[in-house]
Amino acid sequence: MRSAQPIGGIVPGATVGFTFNGTAMEGFEGEGLAAALMRAGIRATRSTAGRGEPRGYYCGMGVCWECAVEVEGIGTVRGCMFPVREGLVVRSPSVRPKEDL
Amino acid sequence: MVKPVVIIGAGPAGLACARRLVGSRVPVVVIDDNLQAGGQYFRQLPPSYAAGPDSRLLRETERLDMLFPVLRDPLVTYRPATTAWAVHDPLTIDYAGPNGAGRVEAAAIVVATGAQDAPFPFPGWTLPGVISAGGCLNLAKGHGLTPPGRIVVAGNGPLVLVAAATLAAAGAQVTHVIEAQPTWRVGAAMARGALLSPSLLVKGIGYRARLMKSGARFLSGAMVSRAIGDGALEAIEIAPVGGDGRPDLRSASRIEAATLVSGYGLLPGTEFVRMAGCRMVRDPLMGGWVPQRTSRFETSIANLYAVGDGAGIGGVEVAIVEGHLAAGAIIDGGASDAQARRRYARLDRFRRVLSGAYVTTPRLSAATDETVICRCEELRLADLKEAVLPGDPDLYRLKSATRLGMGRCQGRNCLTSAAHLFGLDHEDAAMPLPRMRPPARPVRLRDLIENKSIGPAREPDEANTPMKQET
Question: Which of B163, B274, B311, B428 has the smallest C-beta neighbourhood within 10 Å, fewest atoms?
Answer without folding.
Answer: B428
